[in-house]
Automatic annotation (TrEMBL):
<feature type="transmembrane region" description="Helical">
    <location>
        <begin position="151"/>
        <end position="171"/>
    </location>
</feature>
<keyword id="KW-0812">Transmembrane</keyword>
<dbReference type="Pfam" id="PF13515">
    <property type="entry name" value="FUSC_2"/>
</dbReference>
<feature type="domain" description="Integral membrane bound transporter">
    <location>
        <begin position="230"/>
        <end position="355"/>
    </location>
</feature>
<feature type="transmembrane region" description="Helical">
    <location>
        <begin position="270"/>
        <end position="288"/>
    </location>
</feature>
<protein>
    <submittedName>
        <fullName>FUSC family protein</fullName>
    </submittedName>
</protein>
<keyword id="KW-1133">Transmembrane helix</keyword>
<feature type="transmembrane region" description="Helical">
    <location>
        <begin position="73"/>
        <end position="92"/>
    </location>
</feature>
<feature type="transmembrane region" description="Helical">
    <location>
        <begin position="127"/>
        <end position="145"/>
    </location>
</feature>
<feature type="transmembrane region" description="Helical">
    <location>
        <begin position="338"/>
        <end position="363"/>
    </location>
</feature>
<feature type="transmembrane region" description="Helical">
    <location>
        <begin position="295"/>
        <end position="318"/>
    </location>
</feature>
<feature type="transmembrane region" description="Helical">
    <location>
        <begin position="12"/>
        <end position="30"/>
    </location>
</feature>
<dbReference type="GO" id="GO:0016020">
    <property type="term" value="C:membrane"/>
</dbReference>
<feature type="transmembrane region" description="Helical">
    <location>
        <begin position="220"/>
        <end position="238"/>
    </location>
</feature>
<feature type="transmembrane region" description="Helical">
    <location>
        <begin position="98"/>
        <end position="115"/>
    </location>
</feature>
<keyword id="KW-0472">Membrane</keyword>
<dbReference type="InterPro" id="IPR049453">
    <property type="entry name" value="Memb_transporter_dom"/>
</dbReference>
Amino acid sequence: MSLARLRAGAGFAVASVIAALLSFWTIAYFARNQTLVIQLCISGVIIALSIVRSDERSAGPGGGGRMPQWVTWVARFALIPLVALLGSALGHVVRSDAALGFALIGVPLVAAIWVRRFGPVWTRLGSLWSFPFIASLVTPAAALAAGAGVWWGALAALIAVGWGSILGWLVTSAGRLSRDAAEWRPDAPAPANGLHSPAAQASRPAENGTRKLAASDRMALHLAISLAAAILLGWWLLPDHLGWFVLTAYIVNSGNRGRGDVVYKGVQRLIGAGVGTVAATLLGTLYAPGDSTAIVALFVILGVGAVLRTVSYAWWAASMTGGLSLLYDFLGQGGTDVLGQRLLAILLGGLIAIAASSFIAPVRSIDVARRRTADLLGLGREVLTGERSAPSYPALAPEVREASARIAQLAPPFHALRIVTFGRIARARRTADLIDRAAALGAGLERFIAAPSRELGADLGGELRGLREVLVSLRRD
């Protein structure tokens, strides 16, 4: 399974590293006489990586509700360089007042999560405008030297958007061509965007079984509290390493799908970040400050992390924090003497994020799994009772595929908990089993759409009733 995921994500991994390298070289060429060249290159690398990663998520299963490609490109080229102006200005604030600068950077990052409540278009726009601010969050303060104006930040962002979009488009197009060649049917219509499609589901106020607070509101609240607590604690304990507190809190809390998902990914990211920081700090002792070989090593680490990201997020966390450690060493701010302080900042920042998501208006992962399974069951009824001769009937297949993918996204934390507890936690075990059965149901529904049969339909109907009973029992627990 890991090898299959590795092969599936290899194209985008390679594309992301190439886009980052091209952005780095292009920005360095144009800004070679500017004292901000390091800051601009870092910003460009982060934006390019984020652009390709965004295309990978959109191209994969569960990436429904996408904007048309040309709209996405227009939004990228118009929005990201504009926002990068503000990001560059806030980067200078970080240099003079780190706590205030990080707090101001956190505002648009939280807003990018909150606007998800307005549907998939706003979700995409929020993701786009967050890229420059993430770059500002990652850039070390030592790289924010005075010299060039903020307009250079917009130019660097424009270059990164260009390379990231081109490489992402190339890989996406190649994948689409191979997929179309394998699945082409003369009479297959375009995918529908109906009631049960992910686009419609994205506009729902919540996935947590309650109308009191939308899931996007809860995620924004978790991120806001995490960033605020990380800034306050970092400013009090280790003000020289405040950036590590804030960056870790953001990484752990971003993209969560419920309390269990946050804890699971948080542990992965903490372990990965810790290992990456230790390894890169020790590696950094081999290079003197300003040695360009450290930059080469940085890109090698990013490349390995990008390829292995599909296997486990811990690899990407290790590569990102390891690369950042090498960058600090390159700027003369590294060494083994600060390793303990960095690790403490990473640990505390991650624990803050996990605590905020677990205890403050938590989104229960079990409720998210129930909601997404119910969506798949609704689609299953349409598949089994729909008119198979209708032209729109084959279009149910991609909807089923995406609904199954959304359920599969929830599987890792429940599978891990089932393994480490030997299945002794009944609700976690039953939810993991529910997710596995839902994935099998989705595959069966796709087979039925492609080749209907009375026997398969009877089996799927029985499974629909069985899963519905499981959902009811989980609701009563």
